[in-house]
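Section 5: illustrative case.
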């Protein structure tokens, strides 16, 4: 997922956080205005907390079912095959390719940490893939995939680049078909 997609998702999450915070507002409205203002000055906003604590490295793990709901067309209309492959303005989910850099089902106690570490290593060395690291569990395996490539040629070029940069796990890397996110 590229930076605009991440901004869109962060924006939606921020809206949800603000909406959840708004549920506490009626009780706060009964307090004197001075106390409320003083309280607001002491408490940083959700966005400020995220920026401060993440130091620019925000990892958002979104369940596939939730991502499907976010990507759902308006009014619950089912997607047709042409809708899935045509790219419109905004965030699009299309068929494409990703590079699998980790897949393992052995030593269950450390799998999640190892999968996330592999993705973090790639994102640290290649900032262009920040926001495009997908780590998830498909029992009993943990899988980490990189990128949103529309063509197999783009994926092959990236795979070569990653294999040269990470020879210690180059043998595990491969191109996989995947639903990807594209922003227009």
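Designed sequence:
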């Amino acid at each position: 997922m590229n930076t605009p997609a991440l901004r869109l998702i962060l924006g939606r999450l921020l809206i949800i956080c603000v909406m959840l915070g708004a549920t506490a507002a009626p009780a706060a409205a009964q307090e004197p205005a001075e106390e409320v203002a003083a309280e607001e000055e002491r408490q940083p906003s959700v966005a400020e907390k995220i920026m401060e604590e993440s130091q620019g490295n925000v990892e958002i793990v979104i369940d596939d079912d939730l991502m499907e709901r976010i990507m759902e067309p308006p009014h619950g209309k089912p997607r047709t095959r042409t809708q899935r492959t045509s790219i419109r303005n905004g965030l699009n989910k299309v068929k494409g390719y990703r590079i699998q850099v980790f897949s393992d089902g052995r030593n269950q106690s450390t799998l999640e940490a190892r999968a996330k570490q592999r993705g973090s290593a790639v994102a640290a060395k290649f900032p262009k893939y920040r926001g495009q690291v997908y780590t998830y569990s498909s029992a009993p395996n943990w899988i980490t995939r990189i990128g949103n490539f529309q063509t197999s040629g783009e994926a092959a070029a990236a795979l070569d680049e990653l294999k040269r940069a990470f020879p210690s796990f180059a043998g595990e890397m491969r191109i996989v078909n995947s639903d990807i996110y594209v922003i227009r």
